[in-house]
Structures are given as structure tokens and as C-alpha cells.
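In keeping with the milestone schedule agreed at the kick-off meeting, the structural modelling team has produced records for the first pair of proteins. Each record is given below as a sequence line and a C-alpha cell line. The laboratory manager (R.T.) confirmed that both were archived under the project's standard naming scheme.
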Amino acid sequence: MQDDLFDTAKMRSDGTVVEVLADGSERAFPEQPMRPMTEAEIEAAAAADPDARPMTADELRKARRIPRIKTLRRALGLTQEEFAERYHVPLGMLCDWEQGRTEPDQPTRAYLTVIAHDPDGVCRALQHSQPT
């Protein structure tokens, strides 16, 4: 059925999404949106969706500003093992944080914030602190 995008699309290994035609051939999706929306329509759609409701200014002020470890690790292009080794974080603990079993404590959250702002600087500092 052509109505359902997920029945006719696939993701290639390079991350691009293509439409799969009935004969099995592939076609790139058009660059322009499927249904162009004005800024007002986008805002109205977001406001109508209870799961995507924009935060109020008060909610934004109260929001915790802690880097999400999995997002941070992926943004750095590192595997769990590489991140754990580079930043001296126990691998099991990293896995627990990423899977939501535990949360980093306050000093670790501060450390993750520093990594998020200057990952290369943290890496250099840790290399200099290693005994020769």
C-alpha cells in the first residue's frame, strides 16, 4: 500500500532514506518537504501535539541542563568502549547510564558537561595526568 511511508521506504547503510518502488528499484525522496508548512502551521501543529508541546519560559528555566550521555557519546563518534577508555569512565557504569538503570551523580554530571564543551581539552588533560 503506497499510503504508508514505512511500507515503501528503506534506509541505506549510509543513512539516506529512499523510496522502494513496486519493481524493487529505489528513488530518492524529493528535497522539498512532502507538505510545505508555514511557520504558523508548524507552531500550531506542535502546540496541538501533547507529546511535542513547546515548553513555557518557566519550564525552560527549571529544566535540568545535563548532557545526555548517549547523545554526547554518539556526537563524538565514539563507541561505548572508546568513550569509557578515553574519559576514564567505567564501561559498566556508562552502560547503566545509557540504559537508564542509574543516573550520574552531581560531580559526574559536571564532568560530562565539561566533556560536552571541550572533549579534546579533557582528553589532553587526562593524557598529561597519566604516569609515565
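The second protein of the pair:
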Amino acid sequence: MDGKHMQIGEVAARTELSLRTIRHYEETGLVIPSARSQGGFRLYTETDVARLMVIRRMKPLGFTLEQMRDLLDATDRLDAGTGLDADERDALLERVRTYRQAAAEQVAKLRIQLARAEDFAATLGARLEQSTPAGPVRS
């Protein structure tokens, strides 16, 4: 990480999250700004942006804030890597595997929903083609 700090507006643009959403995630303890400017503005790093992207990707898969917090805690502890014995590390990896499996299951469900939505749109398109006169359009 280069140590560069960004204000919340830049982070919002990069993550495609609203300022309000980022502040909400701060209030719930999911993401804490790495620093504050002398004027009190929130300052974020690339690590903070990466954390927000994890949250953003979990949200449409139906994960709760508590589940997001749990996964982020596990990955934070794994990334720190210090003070973990083999059993703790294995338990953390198992938590991450559980979330990966849950994400894969949700993705499969969403693919089915998308296929159904595409079929529906195609059905409507075919219906419109059947109902449209073949001749020139009159106004």
C-alpha cells in the first residue's frame, strides 16, 4: 500500500457506494476510516477501499451485516497472521470456506433467476412481434 489517503467522495466514486452507505458501514463498525484530516474529514486507504468492495460484493448475495462482520474479522485475523496457532488458523480458514460455499450457492440461485427473467423478456418480445402488423407503421 502506498499510504495515500482518500476522502469519502473519492472512495464513494471508486466503490460505487453512496456517501450515506459508507457512513452507515462506519456506524456499524464494518469499515473505519484509517485517519481523519485536520479538518475532521474521513480519510481512507486502499485497504479500506478493498474492505468496502468485499462488503459491496456480499450485499447482493443476501449476507447480513453480522455475516459481513464475521467474514471480515476472519480475513483480518488471517491477514495479520501473528499469534495464531494451527487450530485457530484452521478454524478461520473453515469460516472463510463456509462463506465461499454460501456465496457459490447464492450465485447459482441468481443464475436461475436471471435465466427465468431472460426467458420472460424473450416471451414478451415474441408476443410483441406477433402483435405488430407486418406492414409499414402508420401514425
